[in-house]
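FIELD: query
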Amino acid sequence: MKNAFNNLKKDLYNVFIIGNADDRQLAKAFFLLTIPFLTVMFTFGHFPYR
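FIELD: result
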């Protein structure tokens, strides 16, 4: 489990800080950020507009 967190941390560091990431690291960062964002948008996006 600790190894998985270290891999995620290293991937996010390569994507956002260094900018030198391969396609796998970019995909992991995309899904790591997109899934919670879409969950929040679908949860709070169904309120009626006034």
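FIELD: remark
Residues 23-44 form the longest helix (22 residues).
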